[in-house]
Amino acid sequence: xxxxxxxxxxxxxxxxxxxxxxxxxxxxxxxxxxxxxxxxxxxxxxxxxxxxxxxxxxxxxxxxxxxxxxxxxxxxxxxxxxxxxxxxxxxxxxxxxxxxxxxxxxxxxxxxxxxxxxxxxxxxxxxxxxxxxxxxxxxxxxxxxxxxxxxxxxxxxxxxxxxxxxxxxxxxxxxxxxxxxxxxxxxxxxxxxxxxxxxxxxxxxxxxxxxxxxxxxxxxxxxxxxxxxxxxxxxxxxxxxxxxxxxxxxxxxxxxxxxxxxxxxxxxxxxxxxxxxxxxxxxxxxxxxxxxxxxxxxxxxxxxxxxxxxxxxxxxxxxxxxxxxxxxxxxxxxxxxxxxxxxxxxxxxxxxxxxxxxxxxxxxxxxxxxxxxxxxxxxxxxxxxxxxxxxxxxxxxxxxxxxxxxxxxxxxxxxx
Length: 416
What we know:
By secondary structure, the chain is of the alpha/beta class. It has 13 helices and 15 strands.
């Protein structure tokens, strides 16, 4: 992992992202993208994103959905950060893997409102739609734009596995490099789901927090008084290379993606078994691939959504897979500060994990005030913790029973 690009609530760029996390500040607020008054949950993690300031022309701003803009902006930052000259590579040896749970939802929602006269007409007027509406309908338009941005002509795909998309897309990209299908992969995830249709969907299943009077403290993973997650938007993109190749060109290496595994429970769309077995199996698979023992872990970047069911399930999974070490290794959830950006969050959490290795700082779980007896691990409450970090486990859990785990570690010989 030689380049990182981030767009997240609370700041633009990787440096602002890391500053927010290590300070323990929160970036969740009352929704401003539309009038949230009719909704049950009226809060979100929004990005103060200016397409013009990011270099998008007026035509591109109209043509590209917000999620695509975020992905392209992160790609530009990641490639610049890596120092790699992609023009020196064979285009067919550069791959792209971008994750997204809900694709171009913002554009689709906006255009439906336009062609239906705000839902007043059943027979819509297609002449009112933007001419590139089909791009909003096809999520692969996101990975296509990233490929066009970097000139990639190798394997290009979009991975959509719900809230594990950001982990799964990076795991897939690593496999492209391991099996020789690509020398370099641009990988990550993006989602811009803060739209009426998305908010309505989560309202219907009561998954989101209703702490509307105090949005800054609404996301409370592992806290006894948690009442659901806070919807968010965001993106993170990485430059992945073969380790030996990165060393030959003298690249700065943030971390090595040493292991990845994914499982599903084939059980229920939203239901999770309390014993955490499926997530535990994904964790064990990732650690086995990395030849990492439980005692080698220095930090667990949790999914930590702030729903009662997930936090219990995840805590059980750590105990099941790590044994007694689960009570010793620090665990935290950055969703407490930036909210839950659905498919993008897994990549944002990988970025936080890589930066924890880079800087020797573990981000805290903000808003953690009252311990839950069923969640009894070391959740790094409220204040960042300085310590050496050589190996990080990052996990994700998604509707449909998806469970994914990735193991990042400091490359051999790298210094902190």
